[in-house]
């Protein structure tokens, strides 16, 4: 997993999967680097093969951790179609902006 | 020649038990994905199956408690070209799977797993068992064309392409039906095992076992409604014990009397003990309780029979359209009906057993009441000894005695026998003892006391067809005068002055409770030397030995004469009499209560149970003379 901190934006990428195995560590690693001033958080799922409900839980935790802050954009980038369906099924697209690039 | 390769309809299966931790669960989900990929499941479907296994295994790990957390969950994948079934066996306490798990709130943090599983699979069931539960997740697939085996088939086989194709199709369908039957039977069997496991947990046929069974039956037969009715205790009606829908819990059905025509399908099945299929569309005019299901219901009604007798009925079917009852479904309904009938009867026996225990406990309580009724201590008398003996043939007896000191120098003795057993007899004994105490304060005359008791007790006794025999004796200790009256009771025995043998006091009278205004007469006599007076119930003289011979009054008088002369103190004489009665009875069962009171000389203070000096001898009644029958 790679985390790039560009001041007001945070990009998390190279996540092979987001599951019960690593969702807690994902949450911890990301919250450890959340800057005080925050514009955009991008979670790049290009290389993510699998997400389960624990993974969704980790994404949701990220939403909760930042929801109080004004103007924060949460963005999920390039999810596979199956994962995109999963996000839609669980209405996570209401919390995250989902984009394909 | 080459044999056409067949696409098997029997499922290809992968079964994996795994350590209850997240990495193992993850590895299992991946292994199942790989397995399904090997079966040719396309990439775009694999995600769903991997997800289901991941969610199910996460739950299996997360919700296990106590020692079950060490147990390995088991994941299974069953693949046939037209169906994929995933199973997860967990060791959690289980949960109730809603038919449709609601969409979890997007802001909620949990509850997504089952929702996701239900969203991606066609059918999800959760079978709860005693030690483990199974989550079954099914997905129907478009039947795949078998690999182009026919096309490749060797012309040397001599089979035409069409012929090969036909054979292939036939074989496929034969395999499919065999696999179907096998899986159906195995599901039936596991449903029955689960139900049996359920048995120990519930003692209510309808609420526990029956409902559980119905759920499985329901599913196995692909019915969409079912009703279980059980025969009422009076064998007259069939009442709903469990139903799949509240509106089907209709009124009890009357069973036809001999010669009457049964009213409705269930009543007909119950009356004939023969299962019947039905189709309400065929006869839409007839009044029919099953019409509550819907105007187009179809199905099967099966009798529950145990030992050739009706226990109830079970009806299953569909609301509309044909109820697909093949031989297998038919069979499974019958198997379930048999199991239900057996268990219903078993549970009823169990309930009866509980009821018996309750009755036994009631009797114990009544016996405790009765023991309290017997005087704890008898009056202390200067120069005399007094002892009482009591033994009951049943849990609760109707015999009792009482002794009451009146002033310094006189004494009332009473022995009575309430005709009847059990709690009512004990209650009358209690009442009578209380009344005696009240009446004795107003009169010294036993006849007046008996008349009073009769007057007061007659209304209650006659209302329940019971009566009481009693012997009441007033003893003037100073003058040694005894005054006695009897209400249908065996006479008191005593040694008159100048005699060496006991004689009966010639008292006569009607039992208490027979006539509203019986007048009793007292007789008087004087106590001789040594002082010997015995009041007893007929249980003593009626004691029978193994040959059926009664102890009898003569034997009692002979025994008492012989032992009275020896001048035993009351306690000792009582013990001797008890021993003698038991010796005579031997191994014969005790069939009547026994109660008696003995008044004797105080002899030399030998039995001074309270350790006091002086002439007062207290005869403790503290324990029952005869061991109570087990």
Characteristic terms for this protein:
heterodimer; A: 101 residues; alpha/beta; five-stranded mixed sheet; two-stranded parallel sheet; 3 helices; B: 630 residues; alpha+beta; five-stranded antiparallel sheet; 23 strands; disordered N terminus
Short account of what is shown:
The complex is a heterodimer of chains A (101) and B (630). With 101 residues, chain A is of the alpha/beta class.
Rg measurement of chain A, Å: 12 Å
Radius of gyration of chain B: 41 Å
Strand portion of chain A: 25-35%
How would you classify the helix and strand content of chain B by structural class?
alpha+beta
Question: Which oligomerization state do the chains in this entry correspond to?
Answer: heterodimer
Strands ordered across the widest β-sheet of chain B: 8-7-6-11-10-9
Based on secondary structure, the structural category of chain A is alpha/beta
Alpha carbon gap, first and last residue of chain B: 85 Å
- The proportion of residues in beta strands of chain B is 15-25%
Structure description:
The complex is a heterodimer of chains A (101) and B (630). By secondary structure, chain A is of the alpha/beta class. Chain A is built from three helices and seven strands; from the N terminus they run E-E-E-H-E-E-H-E-H-E. The radius of gyration of chain A is 12 Å and the shape is globular. The two termini of chain A are 20 Å apart. By secondary structure, chain B is α+β, with helices and mostly antiparallel strands. Chain B has a six-stranded antiparallel beta sheet with strand order 8-7-6-11-10-9. Chain A binds chain B through residues 19-21, 50, 52-54, 56-57, 60-61, 80-83, 86, 89-92, 94-95, and chain B through 22-23, 25-26, 29, 44, 47-48, 50-51, 54-55, 58, 103-104, 106-107, 109-110, 112-113, 115-116, 119.
